[in-house]
Amino acid sequence: MKNILLIALLFNCLIVVGQNELNIVPMPAEVKMAKGSFPINSNTVIVLEGSGLERSASLLNDYLQQVAGYRLETTKKNSAANSIRLNYERMDNDIAGAYNLSVNNSGVYIAGDNETGVFYGIQTLLQLAEISTYKPLKRSNTLTVPQLTISDHPRFQYRGMHLDVGRHFFPVSFIKKYIDYLAAYKYNVFHWHLTEDQGWRIEIKKYPELTKVGAWRNGTIIGRYPGKGSDNKPYGGFYTQEEIKEVVQYARERYIDVIPEIEMPGHSSAAIAAYPWLSCFPAKPTEIPANMISQKSIDQQKNGRIKLVQETWGVFDDVFCAGKDSTFKFLEDVIDEVTKLFPSKYFHIGGDESPKTHWKKCPACQLRIKNEKLKDEHELQSYFVQRIEKYLNSKGKILIGWDEILEGGLAPNAVVMSWRGEAGGIEAAKQKHQVVMTPGNPVYFDHTQSKNEDSVTIGGYNPIENVYAYEPIPKELSTEEGKYVLGAQANMWAEYQEYPSKVEYMMFPRMTALSEVLWSPKEKRDWKDFERRLPSVFERLDKEKINYSRAYYDLKATVIPTENYDGIRWKIESKLKNARILVFLPGIFWPRGNISKEDSLELTNVKQTTLFPYKEPFLISTQGYYKTRLDDSTNMKDFPLSEIEQKFSLNKATGKKITLTTPPSKTYPGDGAFTLVNGVQNEKGLARSSEFLGFWGQI
Ligand code: ACM
Ligand code: ZN
Questions:
Q1: Which of 26, 37, 78, 587 has the most beta carbons within 10 angstroms of its beta carbon?
Q2: Is 65's pLDDT higher than 70?
Q3: Nearest to 610 by CA among 659, 652, 575
């Protein structure tokens, strides 16, 4: 009896251990591990039990070709042994994509609530084969998957990633890769930002100048805005309508909806360069600041081509004229062509960052305000969006816009994309409008992932921890209002993403964290468990030769007040096993030429832990430059040795308790009120915006 009990206990233990080791992202809703594994080999057959699953089988074979080097025979004959069976099962889930997956001795069974569900089951199977602890033995050989049963379904219906191809252009081959990345982590929306001040990227047959002129700029600023002048290099590119169709089809086959964005009324310099009559002031030269303009543009403006594609980043006054009917005719023609290319029911019209400067001075815009009995230019913006919405609705499309479309009154059926924090989304949901949450903090993936930034980025600090902790349904909403939140999206603005590898770097691993926010049940979200799975995510990215940020392993230094609020301490953490952390003190040891190990004060020897175990973070008792880094002997493998320098300036307020009478902007929240008394002065401007507080309007 005792023996039986012991065996039973042992068996339970094995199951628990197995579950803990499952390395799937996003984590499925329910997983039950069993004992043993099943080997997929080149003799395994794919059995189509459900009808119309040929495409799913073919995709599975495409993936197997990539990871194992072979394709499997596909049959409709029932075969229980050594098979991957694909089928349908009815599941009670409002959102498409639910599936059941089981693996036993004889094979794999995947049943989706529809084809989408089968597809997600296949994605899970691939991860089981690729990044579970059950590794493929060899390429062209066996893929071993653990025996288990999974019952899974998505939490949100909108699981999006955006890509700006206006600031920098990416070829179709990369767009397809991007779609593959989305599919692998169960995203279902690709928001394609196709037009910008710096380039119009989609062929419109009726207006050929849009791509002949609008897709090209004469130069680009060098470095971070305001930059170090123009690189004077012509830059551009666009997608033909055939290419767009190819991408949309590619995405469709991976159950991804492609939402096009055609920006209006702002961010329209490229369209205006192509057709100057779209501007309120066609005879007014495009303003490009003197230190940012290319020589070619200077010459062109001298020779009479006065409207230019922008060469620097920002928000520009020259926007579509809302007074002239010809503007609307143009946009309707563009919409006619674009809607034919994109089957999505959504159409994104931008609507953000559109200055009213020109509208205020433009006779046509002012006449429109008068005739339409509008209060001001904000209501003119609302008129603009509502007029476009009517047209889109007549074509069976739903308008999506950035949260500025709330200005002056929301168009009746519009969906709001909340980017300036969550306020726009909250307001829209309360007005019973559908909402996609995409707040700058934390889901703008053009922001840095690292405080020890190693490449040019923009905006604030959005580390993977913050992305993972993001909850798309704001607590300000009631349960009923929360239902208007369709989901969330990460935005990938490309001012500083010149190449596909940089996009990958900014995207990974953060998008894997967001995938879990969007897919997994809320109660399944567990940062510690995600951290446990992260190394296997990295391993998979390595295997697939995808570039990604190692910022997760960065040395992290934070300033905290002392217990008595009479000073500050420097808290230094490393997630690397056996990290040996050194701190170099000002004056005494550093800076003064070469630093030897003897010059340093060794704080600790961190073992197998993700947190720095010392009880007392380092007390900063004198001001000056400090430095911290890992000891050279730390086992870093592929990770670059991160090093942090910090100047501390002490005064009587340093570390004291502080409260703010005016809250800072959500975009620049720093580290709360303490930011003002933490002894750190911002020396790198916007590149380190986490070091200051930003305020909107009056303080
Ligand atoms: C935006 O980031 N301007 C929507
Ligand atoms: Zn105008």
A1: 26
A2: yes
A3: 575
